[in-house]
Amino acid sequence: MISFSVRELKSSDLDALLAFEVRNREWFESHIDARDPCFYSELGVAEHIESYLSDFAVGAWHPFVIEDSNSEIVGRANLKSIDFTTKSAQVGYRIDQRVCGQGLATQALKHLIQEAQARWKLTQLVAYVFAQNAGSKKVLERCGFLADQSSGNEDTGEECRYVLSI
Ligand SMILES: CC(C)(COP(=O)(O)OP(=O)(O)OC[C@H]1O[C@@H](n2cnc3c(N)ncnc32)[C@H](O)[C@@H]1OP(=O)(O)O)[C@@H](O)C(=O)NCCC(=O)NCCS
């Protein structure tokens, strides 16, 4: 049985991260906002990792990857825009299409919640998800997030806001 683990992003993840993002580009772009095309190169991903790690160093961001037992990156999850005034942050995650439906996003989101609570002492997490992204909504609800009923509109493309009090 393949096992998966969640760990922090590191600067040596360049090749594995680029491969993961290129492999899943179309899949991600069908669910979430597309990245700048410049991202999809060694330089683009190197700058991306550097920026995430700098934000981690100042406590604004906590980036993770999910890897399989062959050390291949099969998912990502981030605590974003950590705000110590409001004790809140945003969550984001993306999973390789080849391993979806096996509970990886749920595992990753639980990890983010645990880190938010234990390491960063946050009391609220927020997620934004497109109205038609049924898989992601299921993950959020399973982890205790509640939909802000006044948000989200499939016609206008407005994202649904989900909140978790921790
Ligand atoms: C959304 C996403 C993160 C889910 O990852 P995952 O590892 O498959 O998630 P999990 O396996 O933990 O749970 C997904 C659940 O949603 C269900 N699901 C998936 N697609 C669905 C759909 N279209 N309609 C209804 N349920 C759906 C799965 O069956 C599963 O439920 P189950 O465990 O009861 O069978 C993944 O599809 C993905 O990366 N999508 C592209 C990027 C993205 O949308 N990120 C989230 C932005 S908010």
How would you characterize this protein structure?
- This protein is α+β, with helices and mostly antiparallel strands and 166 residues long.
- The chain has one domain (4-165): Aminopeptidase.
- 33% of the residues lie in helices and 27% in strands.
- It has 5 helices and 7 strands, in the order βαααβββαβαββ.
- The protein has helices spanning 14-23, 25-29, 42-57, 104-118, 134-142; strands at residues 4-8, 62-68, 73-83, 88-95, 124-129, 146-147, 160-165.
- Strands 1-2-3-4-5-7-6 form a 7-stranded mixed β-sheet, sandwiched between helices.
- A hairpin with a 4-residue loop joins β3 and β4 (88-95).
- α1 (14-23) crosses α3.
- The longest helix has 16 residues, at 42-57.
- It is globular, with a radius of gyration of 15 Å.
- The relative contact order is 0.14.
- Residues 28, 31-32, 93-95, 100-106, 127, 129, 133-136, 138-139 line the site of coenzyme A.
